[in-house]
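FIELD: query
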Amino acid sequence: MRANSPVIVGRDAEIGLLGSALDAARTRSGRSLFLVGEAGIGKSRLVGECAYRAYGLGMPVLRGRAGSTGLVVPFRPLVEALSSHFRAAGTPTDPELVPYHPALARLVPEWRTSAVSGYAETVVELAEALLRLLSVLGRDAGCVMLLEDLHDCDRETVAVVEYVVDNLAGLPVMLLGTLRPEPGAALDLVRSAEQRHTATVTELRGLGDAEVRALTGACLETPPELVPEAVHERLVARAAGNPYLVEVLLDDLLDTGRLRRAGDGWETAGPPDGALPSRILRSWAARLDRMDEPVRDLLLTAATLGGQFSVPVLQTVTGLADRALFTHLRSAVETGVIAPDGAAPDRYTFRHALTAEALVSSLAPAERAALARRASAAVQRSGEPLDEDLRQLVASLELAAGNRAGAARQFAEAGRRMLASGSHGSAVVLLERARSLAAEADLGSVTESLAVARAESGDLDGALALAGSLPPVPAGSREADARGDTHLKIAWVAVMAERAADTAHQIEAARALFGPEPSPARRASLSVVDGHLSLLPGERRQEPEAVGRAAREAAETAEAEGLPVVACQAWQLLALLSRERGFDAADACLERMLTLSTEHALPLWRVEALVRLGVNAFMRTGDAARLHSARAAAAELGSLLLAQTVDGLLAMNAVMCARWEEAEEITVRSVEASARIGNHGAHRYLLLSAAAAAAHRGRRRETERALAAFRRAGGERSALVPLQLGFCGAVGALLDEDRPRALAELEASAAWERDHPSYYYLSGRYGLHPLLGVLSGGTGRAEYESVASSPGAALAWNRQFLDLAEAVLLGREGDRTAAGQRMAAFDARSAAFPVARHLGLRLVAEAAFADGWGEPAVWLRTAEEYFYAAGVQPAAAACRTALRQAGVSVTQRRGGRDRIPSSLRTNGVTPREYEVFVLLPERPGNQQIAQRLSISPRTVEKHLASLLSKTGRPNRSALCEFAAECVADQP
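FIELD: result
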């Protein structure tokens, strides 16, 4: 019989903790738990108990395990976990998951398409997609993800797990992970999550004496008190409370006959010392000796391959025919040493991680080395191409055989392949192993690859340190060219991270290595990085013409040399530089970038081109159709980062077009997710879009709340400051009838742009600001013409305000016909932008009245109707006042009762009184209220007296506090 306990002993507290976490997940209170303990302490038993209970509650269970072979396989436990569930339940068809299929395709084979995207999604994109998947799976009853042996998993999986752990709150998901207390990324994650209070960590202790006795009784199917004392003492002394070791030592006693049945109980035969193995390794050696020789040899070979092994590799190494191989595998399974791996049909796993280690350790060192050498040679002679997994296996075998240099070369090649596929974290791990083993001749090239891997994995400081530690190489040599390429790759990462000094240092190092006459391809790469460096804020500004010439030459050279990525980088740089000449020139560069990326199957660069072309199109015309196409392409590619970036642009476009529900829907869809995955640029843009939506609806308090969120996200330290001041603040001030504040916002925006040149043309500098200048008389024809000829004037949003400015100038100059024609152009151009259209009509009407041109009365009535219906009372009231001052009759507005809260309406508060009431939270003076509502201070005083009476408040301060309470949740 095998000594396996049918019950879990000594883990009542832990089981209770698991039960609480399951209950919490079912009520959308997601939790993360980690079980930490040595091998054999009982982690897997608890995971099995958790799965059993979850199944009983009708909860989907996803269970995966990191490999114990020592191979670095990105996302293996996650792939196994999802496969374990989808194999039985099928893949979910929820439409909510469709945008995440491309990102999840790396984990879910069923969602892979025949077309290879060529885009390696970032870890945060994959993690966010996994979080959405778990949320959908747990929608009805909660779901459980069980990940075992995380100490053996890859860096990418650790990063995904950390993201999930940090974002489980409020989701119907329980995450349970297990790991040994071994130093590494997984243990660091667990300790950090425990400190942040985002996970519960339980360290499993060894069993006490009574619990060992209970476990022994369960294994022997006998009451604990009938366990022979000598057996109990031996197990307590030798197993140290480890349940697995208790069972193994008990197995040894049963196999050797030194513990046997006696009637209804058990008895020992022979002395409990001397003949008994003193350590677990000798116990396994004894078990091997009792097996048939073919089975023993098979198990030793399998153990050499690791705790898990594939049948094809084992067959390659042993040379056994199918029939003999599977006969021996069945025999090994019957002994309880190995078992089929449920996650893969052609793979087996040892019953416990300690088992494989014990079997290999039972061999003499020379025998272990010889066996590993034969296995490595067999795999390399098989004729099968060595993928990353097989290379790592060969490297491990070479290392076990004592060939450190050979192992280093295999680890290095596997790491470089991981780097090329986008698995940067795993590449770092493998290249670090290679570097620690490499011979002197290989050390430089391995270190160069490791430096690039560190840079592309986000550890730029580590990459710079490694690059700086490299020994010199002869200038002009092949080694110098390779070293220079390393510096160039690090420089590109540095310039994208806006690390100007580091970029410049890497460029300088590369130039020195390439010598005075670098190859055309390398000269092109240098020019591209150097050009992007010149655009960084605060960096030396090269002459744009010189940068442009170098970038164009780089683009042409890169195309001729067959370097499509460098060519796309160059055309992207040229598009940025060309914006100063106009959108047509920029679009021509982007169209070339689009063609190249399509021809050479560079999907990420293709979507980048589509996004930039879409931005230019919507800025010039207000039409977002091409931007929507770019968003669809980003979603198809699986790039959440790009999709969120486009969402910010689409939300801003919806604000410009007064499509409020669309703007809110887009913002809600992406604002939280962009914060979670660290897409800070898109997150700030989405927050600013929300603030602009409130400002363009005249909702001052809502605007202030949204801007506070924008500032907390670092918005005032970003390049979005001009939009915050001009597009958001100035428009909101004008709708509030506070023209001095609007001018102050626009002046502040212009000052910022003078110190920080940018390409954000929606700041008001090229449209709204000149219009206000013309209206005030501070901007004349010459200043207007200068702005109108600039690239920013090509934007439809800006052009409408410039149309108005020119109409005012023409009317002032006495050319009424031309002024009317310009207003007709404004009428056509502004149709897409309702708020700007009616704001513009309100602004120019008074000038038209004064200079006797156009139809200002019609414009004011049109604007008044729009603003009244939109609930923008200050602007509507200003239109009515302007009409009265011009001697035009004004329709009295007595409606609006539906906007008054019922508690105030029942007390008799009128619409006009409510207009005053909603301004009180800001505690303005009577004069300020009068100006904003275009009424007299005396009328304000009457409304306040009426409000005090109707609300029962004792004084104005109390009335202001009451207004703040009532208005806080009102739009």
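FIELD: remark
The mean pLDDT is 87.
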